[in-house]
Amino acid sequence: MNRRRTPRRISHSQRRDAPAGGYCRQRSQEQWRGQDEAQVREVEDDERRQQQGKETVPQGACQTMCPARELRDREAQNRLHRFEIVAGMEKVRRPRGDPLRAVKEYSRPAAGKDSTNPNDLRPPAVLLKTVCYLIDDIAASPHLHPWTEVYSFVFDRLRGVKQDMIIQRVSGLHCVAILERTVRFLIYASYRLCGEPLRLYDPRINDTHLQENLSWLLDCYVTGTESYPNQEEFQALGLLYNLGSARASQHIMELPERLRSSPTVTLALSINRAFLERNPVRLLRLARRLNFMQSCALHRHLAACRRDLLLIYSHGYNSRNCRFPLDTLAQLLSLDTSPAAQLCQAYGLEVNQENQVVFSKAGFAEPTQGDLHCNLYHNIVAEKQRDLTIDNIIHGCA
């Protein structure tokens, strides 16, 4: 009887068409191991690149306000400002630059131009020294005129300082000290140069750079670990300059209670609330408690505030037989009697010979562009400057 033979099982490794010794399994393990090693190398390379990026942040080595190479180039190209040339060479065809007065100018980034050369970058201490020179020897100088030219020179050189700070990623106390002086200078300029022709002073450009520097400064306060004694001042200045801004208000609300409840910030919040409620009488009353720099920050909102006051009174005292004393109105407007009368007439309101204002809802009219000169109504700001010097104002010593 034939026995049935059970078929013999053959493993994959013993098949005639399979490689011997489990080669497929070994090959698979080697492939996975190779992929793991490649991933590890990729991560290590990435970390190495990041570390190199941290180590290659440019560090300035220039110890003068203007790099020697730039000074030579600008001398050769006759591009020195009159504030930078050697004294007594004003009428020379190609004057030499004074290394003690020349300041690095702002230059736009250009393709192929190396902006990270250490010899062209000023370290933080030199940048702060440069800013102090621009304030003390240029902006505050009683001999340099006109101030529109002074402003243009300082504005450009401050942009150059900011450019060096960005390239070197400057932070900490030096960064804050530079930004605080820059913000004060731009706020002061927005008041002093109000009404100047656009070819000499553009308020929009000044505002753009002021907002950028102020935003950077406020970020430094939030992210920094040091103690900043002027933080209360600049938190209030930011809100006063940006009255009615939801973003500025939100920023103040997110401050620590210690800052938010400080007298300076509390006063700025009260003025902002009066502005939002369109209560010009209360706003102008509170504004009398501001110091000079705070008044400069508020200054750009005063024209709209006074306009609202006259409009409200034109509706409230709209009567043929009603007369309002000009002296009382001048006090409410924080103006002297004469500019108060001029302001009323600019809005179509009658001021009679008895120095009384005849308010009329129908007679109120918006002045045409150019008829209302803001600098004629600066009483509330100008009276606070008194004997303060520009260097004291910008350095924060007022």
UniProtKB/TrEMBL annotation:
Residues 1-64 are annotated as: Disordered. Residues 27-52 have a biased composition (Basic and acidic residues). One of its GO terms (biological process) is spindle assembly. Residues 1-13 have a biased composition (Basic residues). Gene3D superfamilies: 1.25.40.990. It comes from the Eukaryota. One of its GO terms (cellular component) is centrosome. Coiled coil: none annotated. Residues 65-353 form the SAC3/GANP/THP3 conserved domain. This is SAC3 domain containing 1. It comes from Sparus aurata (Gilthead sea bream). The gene is sac3d1.
